[in-house]
Specification:
The protein is an all-alpha fold. Helix content is 74%, strand content 0%. The chain has helices spanning 12-36, 43-56, 58-70, 74-80, 86-110. The longest helix is centred in the first third of the chain and has 25 residues, at 12-36.
Length: 114
């Protein structure tokens, strides 16, 4: 029964521009935190933490990245969700799987036919 004021956009393009700006801000948060802590992130880790920051906020992303930095198996940390922030991981993992499927389709469809 609460009244909530939400953002309204004039068109879909404006909404996508706003979302893009938000994701760019999260990317900067992730890369700055990684650099500050001496972490090298591959593309999967970078995307994982950008989405974690978008979904759970920069504070949660930083705590997750701290866990990641202590992990001996970086790939496994992301793939198996070896974080205390399981809710964020579930949402991010779903998007990581969609990202992989889309990339696979793009590669498959861009391969020249003989």
């Amino acid at each position: 029964g609460m009244s909530v004021k939400t953002a309204a956009f004039m068109n879909n393009q404006d909404a996508l521009i706003a979302k893009s700006a938000m994701l760019k801000m999260e990317e900067e948060n992730v890369m700055n935190y990684a650099k500050k802590n001496g972490l090298e992130l591959d593309d999967d880790a970078k995307d994982y933490f950008i989405m974690a920051s978008y979904n759970g906020g920069p504070g949660s992303m930083q705590k997750m990245m701290d866990e990641y930095s202590k992990s001996k198996d970086k790939k496994g940390f992301i793939e198996r969700g070896e974080t205390k922030y399981k809710g964020i991981h579930v949402n991010v993992n779903r998007r990581m799987k969609m990202r992989k499927q889309i990339n696979d389709l793009l590669v498959k469809n861009s391969t020249p036919k003989k």
